[in-house]
Amino acid sequence: QVQLVESGGGLVQPGGSLRLSCATAGILFRFSNMAWYRQAPGKPRDFLARISSGGSTDYADSVKGRFTISRDNAKNTVYLQMNTLKPEDTAVYYCNANSAYWGQGTQVTVSS
Question: Fewer Cβ within 10 Å of end Cβ, the chain: N or C?
């Protein structure tokens, strides 16, 4: 059974940082392409960042230079380091594996 479990969300002030984690099970993680998406209320789910099994990364323009995706194959976990957060970053953040599997999401709220 495939499981993706996000954690690390919460309330942060504008300009602050958070690191999201996505722990996986049931997939061959080291061979998997992983990605992060987010969905704000009333909006579609948007792509943020991806990391290939080989470590290549790609980012949406909206987060380039502020967010960093990384992976730890020994822990079967993918991370999203988010810096210089803005109120418009408020959303539910989702982990995706191989464009097929989703986690349950973690809420990020950026507010003073």
Answer: N
